[in-house]
């Protein structure tokens, strides 16, 4: 039987009068790749921040590795990797300095951190900027650096929040392969993105968050049962009850044209 790695029970979160999460309960087993999707502002990043202990004001329970995150211990955090949607990176450091620093924070010996940083940057096609300052990196290069920094310590559980923004098509293929291989080795991946075709292809299970609750939870094939040739994009549109894109688009353009 596979271990339960992530569990949330009746998670609720408000920002002022606004209810963002209204009873989110989910369970994720080891080796699963969860595609966590939902409209803008649905609360995906908020869920991830609560699970990571970055956001503390909420009600409900979260267990990671079977361990209640509210009990104050931090040891389990060493087993987690995270790519945030918006990341603060020390721009003045070089890739080498940044990754070695992060690796050491996670307890890696400095030689090992340095070796892994260099090798992973080379393999991800950014080896030539190893000694360049991060401020000079392109968007895709920064994103690759963040992905590498989340993986340096070989974590068991990964939270990826829009990790492939800015990656070119070839790099996305490499990233998908990395995800699949990590999951095959029993790592658990909680992946939030709007890039539906990638979510559809790599997720073993898709969880759709809508209006504060889970509106769908299952493998793509299961969610797609009614519409065999459907795409995840179509399922998303159906389940979120959205059909006004044409009308909204044309109203938008007519306002743009007002002078
Ligand atoms: N610090 C904050 N203060 C006030 N409201 C916030 C804060 N953080 C998030 N929110 C609100 O909570 C809601 C959920 O935000 P969240 O970033 O979790 O959504 P998301 O599903 O990740 O959206 P997106 O797909 O656009 O990234 C939004 O309405 C947002 O405005």
TrEMBL record:
<dbReference type="InterPro" id="IPR003593">
    <property type="entry name" value="AAA+_ATPase"/>
</dbReference>
<dbReference type="Pfam" id="PF00005">
    <property type="entry name" value="ABC_tran"/>
</dbReference>
<keyword id="KW-0547">Nucleotide-binding</keyword>
<keyword id="KW-0067">ATP-binding</keyword>
<dbReference type="GO" id="GO:0005524">
    <property type="term" value="F:ATP binding"/>
</dbReference>
<feature type="domain" description="ABC transporter">
    <location>
        <begin position="6"/>
        <end position="236"/>
    </location>
</feature>
<dbReference type="InterPro" id="IPR003439">
    <property type="entry name" value="ABC_transporter-like_ATP-bd"/>
</dbReference>
<protein>
    <submittedName>
        <fullName>ABC transporter ATP-binding protein</fullName>
    </submittedName>
</protein>
<dbReference type="InterPro" id="IPR017871">
    <property type="entry name" value="ABC_transporter-like_CS"/>
</dbReference>
<dbReference type="InterPro" id="IPR027417">
    <property type="entry name" value="P-loop_NTPase"/>
</dbReference>
